[in-house]
């Protein structure tokens, strides 16, 4: 569904309400809210009733390189990183072992230097060990932020510029309206109905429809892909080996 169609659908719904005439939401304002919704959905959604976060959107999986230096055990992830680090490789070579506990990794490789063998992600920082003897390129595989949708008219040149009307391709087509239109209407009605002596009926209605759409998306995506967990070194003790 084109960005302009999403905006038009939001305008059709919002401006038919009797009490919304004073609300001034331009196409640009609406598109910003739509893009904010995409970022929230890609990040796991705003689930209610203790529902689990949405799995990462497969079409946002990407890779990039970062550099492990000789002076630090950590490096910032690329600015496009949102969630779901899948794996880390020495570029063109071996895969690094994943640790979920940073302290365990640092204890295991304390004072060691050499080719990185392990990593642990904390927030947007990638920790690795051992510390390399020379700068080492690491390839990281992760889910990125969605790129903002753009609507732009054609420009007569020179040079001529074609019209742009982006599509939120990271979301299955049959759920694009249910998710993004209802998210945007909810956010707009939240402002319109704020302070009104009522139970915010339109906010509640569109929020319920948005939540139902996130459940549909969850079913569509299936279980999140996860990297196989490592058997930690300290697990292999006499008590654990039969």
How many beta-strand segments?
A: 9
The helicity comes to 25-40%
Structural class: alpha+beta
Mean pLDDT across all amino acids:
89
Q: Major β-sheet, in short?
A: 4 strands, mixed
Globular, elongated, flat, extended or rod-shaped: what is the shape? elongated
Computed CA radius of gyration, to the nearest angstrom? 23 Å
Number of helices: 5
How are the strands ordered across the major sheet? 2-6-5-4
Q: Span from first to last CA?
A: 57 Å
Strands, helices and their partners?
Layout: H1 3-14, H2 27-42, E1 61-68, E2 74-76, E3 81-90, E4 97-98, H3 102-108, E5 118-122, E6 125-129, E7 136-144, E8 151-152, E9 164-165, H4 176-192, H5 201-221
Parallel strand pairs: 4-5
Antiparallel strand pairs: 1-7, 2-6, 3-7, 5-6, 8-9
Helix pairs in contact: 1-2, 1-4, 2-4, 4-5
How would you describe this protein?
By secondary structure, the chain is of the alpha+beta class. The chain is 30% helix and 19% strand. The chain is built from 5 helices and 9 strands; from the N terminus they run ααββββαβββββαα. The termini are far apart. 25% of the residues are buried. Mean pLDDT is 89; it is low at 234-242.
């Amino acid at each position: 569904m084109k960005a302009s169609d999403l905006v038009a659908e939001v305008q059709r719904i919002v401006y038919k309400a009797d009490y919304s005439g004073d609300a001034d939401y331009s196409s640009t304002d609406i598109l910003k809210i739509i893009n904010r919704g995409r970022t929230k959905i890609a990040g796991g959604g705003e689930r209610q009733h203790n529902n689990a976060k949405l799995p990462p959107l497969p079409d946002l999986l990407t890779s990039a390189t970062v550099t492990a230096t000789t002076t630090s055990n950590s490096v910032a992830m690329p600015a496009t990183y949102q969630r779901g680090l899948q794996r880390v490789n020495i570029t063109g070579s071996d895969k690094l072992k994943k640790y979920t506990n940073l302290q365990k990794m640092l204890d295991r490789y304390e004072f060691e230097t050499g080719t990185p063998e392990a990593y642990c992600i904390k927030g947007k920082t990638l920790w690795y060990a051992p510390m390399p003897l020379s700068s080492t390129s690491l390839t990281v595989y992760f889910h990125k932020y969605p790129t903002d949708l753009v609507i732009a008219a054609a420009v007569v040149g020179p040079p001529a510029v074609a019209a742009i009307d982006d599509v939120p391709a990271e979301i299955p087509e049959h759920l694009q309206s249910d998710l993004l239109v209802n998210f945007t209407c909810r956010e707009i009605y939240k402002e319109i109905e704020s302070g009104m002596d009522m139970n915010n009926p339109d906010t509640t209605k569109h929020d319920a429809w948005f939540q139902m759409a996130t459940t549909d998306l969850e079913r569509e995506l299936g279980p999140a892909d996860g990297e196989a967990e490592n058997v930690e070194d300290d697990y292999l003790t006499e008590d654990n080996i039969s």
